[in-house]
């Protein structure tokens, strides 16, 4: 199905700002060259421009890329400002981001990773 991003195994956010004039090939090149990740893996890659009112998402569906674009009419995304980095986020953090919240919610109960807790 076109754009069914719910099937993505991982979600990566490109922190800092991305040139929003880039399309599929340019964003896939950033994923490969800057972040050393495979854009063909079952992952969703998120990008945001300097004004933080627009977001692009790149997702490989197995037979081609899907490029999703969202522009807010009012407000802006609480985008992490770390320079030129990529960060893996949870589906919950992705929802927070789309709702205009920061992905770093200090009062949220965090899941415990059993592998690192032992």
Secondary-structure map with pairings?
Layout: E1 10-15, H1 24-34, E2 43-48, E3 54-60, E4 65-71, E5 85-89, H2 91-98, H3 114-117
Structure report:
With 118 residues, the protein is an alpha+beta fold. The chain has one domain (8-117). It contains three helices and five strands; from the N terminus they run βαββββαα. The protein has helices at 24-34, 91-98, 114-117; strands spanning 10-15, 43-48, 54-60, 65-71, 85-89. It has a five-stranded mixed sheet with strand order 4-3-2-1-5. A hairpin with a 4-residue loop joins strand 3 (54-60) and strand 4. The longest helix has 11 residues, at 24-34. The radius of gyration is 14 Å and the shape is globular. It starts with 9 loop residues before the first strand and ends with a helix. 20% of the residues are buried. The mean pLDDT is 87. It holds the Pfam family TnpB_IS66. This is IS66 family insertion sequence element accessory protein TnpB. It comes from Clostridium tanneri.
